[in-house]
Structures are given as structure tokens and as C-alpha cells.
């Protein structure tokens, strides 16, 4: 395809020209995240509670909100504090958010925080194929890294506005570090001597692989292949201590074990090498075979947790920001530590790498022999051995508890909602509301991530998908007494309300981060927490039974993550033009949830909504 070749050639040429200062200039041109008006947030807060809170309780909350926003009251004082903070800081929210949402969060990063990505199954089923693909993948990531290093990464846009690109500069050469009460993140990319190595893990054994030649050119695919082969041949024993599984533990336990681990000098150096590495490649052992239709579900759990201590869970360093996973059986994907970035930059990197791996093999050139990659050694004391055993047990409990279903909805994709002049994302979110309502006969607090990257250092806010309009539609949908034409009108109204909420959120006017900011301001001021934050409605509103996210990619992949509450679902989706990939998770320990049941209900909801539009010809424009 001439066009593709041309655009590829353009990318290659552009990426090789270094444009120093371009990134900073771009960043400085971005607006600062606003602090929304207090009354606007208070009014909108009451509106989002309506579909999820009983009326009596809501009346009580109304009184509390009125008191909170009273002129001269506590709300105004906190708002002023927040505005002062916004004036001084580059982004009033981002440091707080990083700390609160990630670094202070003490649940294991596995399942509870780190998303996985499942790529389509690759066509190999042996060690040679695995190494060949891994070599291409590494070369592809290094190619992407050239654009980051040279500041030539194309700026992204949302709704016609340029986006903050800082997350791209945080995902390579970085790692989370555990602490006893709170974690931190280190990034070595901007060091005077930035790292030149990646780490490779095979049969639980870690290696340092230098990926640049002495003339600073990246190793070729052939060179990488030879190096990976050496690593595999020297790590054939399968009885090694899975020291990496420590990173899957509860953060406080891991924080303690970490202090213990790095007391030993050799261990400390090995851990530093992993933390400093550009990224990690996990060469996984084959997992139990799955039928073709179960493949993506099985691969999703492999990416999210590795399958348990018997399988590949020890073949990871879960604190590492980026870990690419290549299985001997053709399973391929990644897991990333969430603190530095959201899904979209990660899948943009994947899209680039997948395109790169499709390029035909480069002609072999004679190669000078390269040194053997260095194996990272660990001294395992009896105490560490105990920590590893405990981490294995906890991991296996988590593995047993995760109920995962990857569902490819194959009847339509973005095309159908678009043909009815409806936002595809909003259409899918309304279908999720319908599916949930049909299963539980009530609406629940629903989280959809909205990008705040229009603003400097922006992360996310929440689109609350359960709205007065979605609730009216889902109640009407199965009501025989209501005419189809009315149902169509309600459907359109719900979809448009969702899109309007999205527009408000991406422009920095949603309510959730603002409310959080007011709460954190009260804590920072050492004043009593206002009653609205102690109220049951606030707890219910933040108990997200549906935690959802759209992560679109050009590649036919899907991102996946766990639920955020014990009785909830995690739903991530990649809407393609003619199909939609969904990854749905729940916990087996909750008798009321089932990922498979929600997948079926969602499929029915999408089909029923399409049928409803079709039955009412005037709907199509
Ligand atoms: N009629 C016809 N087409 C429409 C339409 C309408 N009324 N509304 C939207 N579309 C089109 C859009 O132009 C777009 O076209 P494209 O496929 O050519 O790009 C497409 O439909 C998709 O638009 P939509 O479904 O409305 O969603 P979006 O792309 O605007 O995304 C969010 C919405 C909320 C997902 C996005 O704003 C966002 O914030 N993304 C980041 C989420 C995130 O960070 N997730 C990761 C968390 S780890």
C-alpha cells in the first residue's frame, strides 16, 4: 500500500530529526486546569445523585449541600484555597491525584490498579517464534522511543484541541518504588546518562540487555534475536525463586519486604537495574491451551496477573511501568503500572509497535559478536523466602477471585451509532446502563474516564454515565405500555446527555475532581471535613459498581482491568468501526456479579437499542 509506505517513510524521516525544546514549547502553550465554579459543581452533584440515591436521603443531602455553598460558608473558603493553589501550581490536581489515586493506594497493583492489554494471537508456537517476535517488538519500542528522545512525537488532538504529551515522557525508564505507607515513582529518562538497557525475564530469571550499540544506534532485530537466544539458553531451569512475585503483594507488605530485600548489596544492584531499565520484556512459558473463542479471555488474565505462581506470575516485576509479555504459545500483550499514565498513550505506543513488527524482516548484515547479557542475581534469605511464599499465596487467591471475560461484540461497531448521528461512546455507555438495569433493576454509580489532557499535566475526570436521562430510558425500554417512538426519543436524549457530560468533563468542568479537591483542601487546612463528605450519598456516589473506560486503538486489541469495588465490574472497550472489543471483569467472591452475564446482557442491550432505532425509520438521518 503506497499510502502506508509513504506515511511510514514520513514518520521515519521525521523521527530522526531532533527538535530540541519542541516538547516544552508545546506544553507551555497548553491552558491550565480550571477550578469550576462552586455553585455549578454543587448543582451538578445533586443532579448526578438523583438516579442512584433514594429521595429521602437525597433531601438530606440537599440540605447539606445548601449549607456547604452558603455565602461566606465553608465551601467558599475551600474554593478560595483551591483557586489560590491553582494560581500557583502548574496543575492544581495532578500531584494530589498521583498521590491519592496511586501512590497512597495500598491494594496490590495487580488486578486493582495495573491495566493489561491483549493483542491478537500471533502465529507462532515455539521458542524460536517467541524470540523472533520479542526481538521485533523491542526494536519497535526503541523506534517509538526515538520519537520521544528527539521530541518528534506527533501532538495528539481531542475535539480539535492539542493535548498534553507529558505522559509519553514518563512511561519509559521509570518504575514504582514500594514504601511502607506510601510509594513513589522514579524516572531515569532525563538523567545525565539515561539508561541504555532493558530487562528481560525468562523462567523467573532477570537479565540486563543493552539495546544500543557503542555508536548509539539501537540493536537490530537480528542482534536482539541473538541476545534473547543467549538469555533463554542460560535460563532453562524452571526451579528458581520467583523473586518478582513480591511486587504483586499488598503495598505495605511489599514495602516491608523491599526494605529487607535491598539490605543485601547484590539484591539492591539487581533491583536498581530493573527499575532503571527502559522497559521489561517477559518471555512467558506457555499457559494451559484455550479454545479459539476463549483465547482472548485467557490471554487477558495472563496479561493482568500471569496465571498464578505455577504459571507466569513470578515472571514479572509488577512495579515496572511497562512490561511487554510474549508467550511461547503466541500470546502477546502488556501490563503497565498505572501511576505515570493513562491507557491512550500506552495503546498509541502499541499501535506503532504492531505496525513496526509487520514490516518485512530487514536484510541480515554481518554482526560483530555482542557480550552475554548480564544475569541479575538475588540472595534469598530465609526471611525473603517467607515473603515470597506469602506473596505466592496471596497471588493465587487473587487469581482464583478474578472473573474475566473478553467479549468481541461482532454485530456492529462505531458505524451504527454514527449512522444515526449518535456518539458511539455515549451509545455504548447507555447500553451498559441498560444491561446493568436489566440485571439488577436499579442504576448504580458509574465511572467513565474522561481525559483532562487538554490541560497541562492533565490526567482524568469522571463522566458519570448514570444520569436522570439514562435512568428514564432504561426504565422505559422494557415497558410494554410505552410506544417505540417515545423510547427512541428517550434513547436519543440519554445518548446526547452523556455526550454533553463528556464535553463538560474534557473541558475541566466535571464535578468529581473538584469535589475531591475541596475535600483535600479541607484536609490540608487541617479543618473538619465538611458534612457533605461524611454523608452516605457521597459514599454511594463513589462506590462505582461500574468502572468503565474507552481505550481506542487502531490495533484489534483490548485493554483490561479489575473492578474497583468488591461487588462491581470493570469494563474496558475498544470500539472499532465494525465491532467492539470488551474486557469485563468481576470478582468470583461476589455472588451477585458475573462477567459472562454482564457480557450477554450488554450484547442484548446493544442489539435491542439498534433494533429500536431500526424499527423507527425516521430515527435514521
Ligand atoms: N454523529 C456522528 N459521529 C459522531 C457523533 C455524532 N453525533 N459523535 C461522535 N461521532 C464520531 C466522532 O467524530 C468520532 O469519529 P472517529 O471514529 O472518526 O474518530 C467517533 O464518533 C468517536 O466519538 P465518540 O464515540 O463520541 O467518543 P470520543 O472519541 O469523543 O471519546 C471519550 C470519548 C470520553 C472516550 C474521550 O473523550 C476521552 O476522554 N478519552 C480518554 C479516556 C481515557 O483516558 N481512558 C483511559 C483510562 S486508563
TrEMBL record:
It holds the Pfam family Carn_acyltransf. This is Carnitine O-acetyltransferase. GO terms for biological process: carnitine metabolic process, CoA-linked; fatty acid metabolic process. Residues 33-603 form the Choline/carnitine acyltransferase domain. (R)-carnitine binds at residues 447, 449, 460. SUPFAM superfamilies: CoA-dependent acyltransferases. CoA binds at residues 414, 418-425, 451, 499, 550. Residues 1-21 form the signal peptide. Belongs to the carnitine/choline acetyltransferase family.
Amino acid at each position: 500500500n503506497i499510502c502506508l509506505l509513504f506515511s511510514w517513510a514520513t514518520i521515519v524521516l521525521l523521527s530522526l530529526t531532533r527538535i530540541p525544546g519542541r516538547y516544552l514549547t508545546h506544553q507551555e502553550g497548553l491552558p491550565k486546569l480550571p477550578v469550576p465554579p462552586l455553585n455549578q459543581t454543587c448543582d451538578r452533584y445533586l443532579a448526578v445523585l438523583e438516579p442512584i440515591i433514594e429521595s429521602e436521603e437525597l433531601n438530606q443531602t440537599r440540605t447539606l449541600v445548601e449549607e456547604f455553598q452558603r455565602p461566606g460558608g465553608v465551601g467558599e473558603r475551600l474554593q478560595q484555597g483551591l483557586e489560590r493553589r491553582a494560581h500557583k501550581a502548574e496543575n492544581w490536581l495532578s500531584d494530589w491525584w498521583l498521590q491519592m489515586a496511586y501512590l497512597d493506594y495500598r491494594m496490590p497493583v495487580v488486578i486493582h490498579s495495573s491495566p493489561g492489554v491483549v493483542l491478537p494471537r500471533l502465529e507462532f508456537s515455539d521458542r524460536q517464534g517467541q524470540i523472533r517476535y520479542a526481538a521485533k517488538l523491542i526494536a519497535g519500542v526503541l523506534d517509538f522511543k526515538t520519537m520521544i528522545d528527539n521530541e518528534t512525537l506527533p501532538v495528539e488532538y481531542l475535539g480539535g484541541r492539542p493535548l498534553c504529551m507529558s505522559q509519553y515522557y514518563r512511561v519509559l525508564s521509570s518504575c514504582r518504588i514500594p514504601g511502607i505507607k506510601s510509594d513513589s515513582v522514579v524516572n531515569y529518562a532525563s538523567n545525565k546518562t539515561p539508561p541504555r538497557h532493558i530487562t528481560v525475564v525468562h523462567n523467573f530469571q532477570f537479565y540486563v540487555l543493552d539495546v544500543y550499540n557503542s555508536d548509539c544506534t539501537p540493536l537490530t532485530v537480528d542482534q536482539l534475536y541473538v541476545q534473547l537466544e543467549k538469555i533463554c539458553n542460560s535460563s532453562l531451569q524452571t526451579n528458581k525463586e520467583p523473586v518478582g512475585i513480591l511486587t504483586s503483594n499488598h503495598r505495605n507488605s511489599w514495602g516491608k519486604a523491599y526494605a529487607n530485600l535491598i539490605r543485601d548489596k547484590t539484591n539492591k544492584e539487581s533491583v536498581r537495574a530493573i527499575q532503571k531499565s527502559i522497559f521489561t520484556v517477559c518471555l512467558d512459558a506457555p499457559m494451559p491451551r484455550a479454545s479459539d473463542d476463549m483465547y482472548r479471555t485467557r490471554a487477558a488474565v495472563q496479561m493482568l496477573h500471569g496465571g498464578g505462581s505455577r504459571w507466569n506470575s513470578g515472571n514479572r516485576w509488577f512495579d515496572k511501568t511497562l512490561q511487554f509479555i510474549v508467550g511461547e504459545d503466541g500470546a502477546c500483550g502488556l501490563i503497565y503500572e498505572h501511576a505515570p499514565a493513562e491507557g491512550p498513550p500506552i495503546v498509541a505506543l502499541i499501535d506503532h509497535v504492531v505496525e513496526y513488527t509487520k514490516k518485512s524482516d530487514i536484510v541480515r548484515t554481518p554482526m560483530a559478536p555482542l557480550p552475554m547479557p548480564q544475569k541479575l542475581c538475588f540472595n534469598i534469605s530465609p526471611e525473603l523466602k517467607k515473603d515470597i511464599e506469602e506473596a505466592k499465596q496471596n497471588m493465587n487467591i487473587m487469581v482464583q477471585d478474578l472473573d474475566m471475560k473478553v467479549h468481541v461484540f461482532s454485530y456492529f461497531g462505531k458505524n451504527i451509532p454514527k449512522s444515526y448521528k449518535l456518539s458511539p461512546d455515549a451509545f455504548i455507555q447507555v447500553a451498559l446502563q441498560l444491561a446493568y438495569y436489566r440485571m439488577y433493576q436499579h442504576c448504580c454509580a458509574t465511572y467513565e474516564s474522561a481525559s483532562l489532557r487538554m490541560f497541562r499535566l492533565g490526567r482524568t475526570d469522571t463522566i458519570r454515565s448514570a444520569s436522570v436521562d439514562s435512568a428514564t430510558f432504561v426504565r422505559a425500554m422494557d415497558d410494554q405500555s410505552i410506544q417505540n417512538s417515545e423510547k427512541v426519543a428517550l434513547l436519543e436524549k440519554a445518548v446526547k446527555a452523556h455526550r454533553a457530560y463528556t464535553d463538560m468533563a474534557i473541558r475541566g468542568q466535571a464535578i468529581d475532581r473538584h469535589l475531591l479537591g475541596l475535600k483535600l483542601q479541607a484536609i490540608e487546612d487541617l479543618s473538619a471535613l465538611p458534612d457533605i463528605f461524611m454523608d452516605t450519598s457521597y459514599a454511594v456516589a463513589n462506590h462505582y459498581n461500574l468502572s468503565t473506560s474507552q481505550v481506542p486503538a487502531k490495533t484489534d486489541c483490548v485493554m483490561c482491568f479489575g473492578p474497583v469495588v468488591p461487588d462491581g465490574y470493570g469494563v474496558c472497550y475498544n470500539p472499532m468501526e465494525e465491532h467492539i472489543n470488551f474486557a469485563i471483569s468481576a470478582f468470583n467472591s461476589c455472588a451477585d456479579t458475573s462477567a459472562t452475564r454482564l457480557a450477554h446482557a450488554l450484547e442484548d442491550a446493544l442489539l435491542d437499542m439498534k433494533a429500536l432505532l431500526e424499527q423507527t425509520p425516521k430515527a435514521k438521518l
